[in-house]
Write a structure and sequence with these properties.
The chain is α+β, with helices and mostly antiparallel strands. Helix content is about 25%, strand content about 40%. The chain has two domains: about 45 residues, no CATH class; about 110 residues, Jelly Rolls. It is built from two helices and nine strands; from the N terminus they run H-E-E-E-E-E-E-E-E-E-H. The longest helix has 24 residues. The mean pLDDT is about 85.
């Protein structure tokens, strides 16, 4: 009888589990720099553009609004680099061309990509015309998609290995016929009665 650790079933079960954990670790280590704010006019927030490996000097600014009585929304934003005080101005005009139909209401969404050097920035929502609040997302462009696809692929492979381990004939633990139990006991020696 071979060791249960060297069986196909054990290899598929434990190998699949290891592959799933490895895929999860890869996804968690992916370079990801994203924040989302719900802002009103004249709101300020800080954001850091990273200069590490896997990050690119580009920032995606996404705006999402829910217009109620207007068909055009104007958003004026500023990014100020905190050390050099370099100022970047972003203006967005969202119209019915940017409409995304939501479950309960109409939503306008637009994204702009801005080249930015690494550093600390202050984001200012300077003007908001047509709505009272906007959802602003700041996402630094990075290699995160490559990491997430790689880790997710490993997770799928691990699940397939686990299912294959379930379908492989045989048992994970040895059956009764494969198990030899050695019953042994010491006979008590009778001591002579005196």
């Amino acid at each position: 009888m071979g060791s249960i650790w060297l069986s196909k079933k054990a290899f598929l079960y434990f190998g699949g589990t290891f592959i799933i954990l490895l895929g999860g670790a890869i996804v968690l280590m992916s370079p990801y720099n994203y924040v989302n704010f719900a802002l009103v006019e004249n709101s300020m927030r800080t954001f850091t553009v990273k200069g590490e490996s896997g990050y690119y000097p580009q920032l995606e600014i996404s705006a999402s609004v829910r217009p109620s009585n207007t068909s055009t929304v104007h958003i004026d934003m500023m990014l100020i680099e905190n050390i050099t005080l370099d100022t970047y101005i972003v203006n967005m005009t969202l119209t019915s061309d940017d409409k995304v139909v939501g479950p309960d209401t109409t939503i306008y969404e637009q994204t702009v990509t801005l080249p930015l050097a690494a550093g600390n920035y202050t984001f200012i929502l300077d003007n908001l015309d047509g709505v009272g609040q906007a959802d602003i997302g700041l996402n630094q462009v990075s290699d995160s998609r490559v990491w997430i696809v790689s880790g997710g692929s490993l997770n799928i492979i691990g699940v397939v290995m686990g299912i294959a381990g379930y379908l492989v004939p045989g048992t994970f633990l040895p059956t009764e016929s494969d198990t030899i139990i050695d019953w042994g006991y010491d006979e008590e020696e009778e001591s002579p009665v005196q």
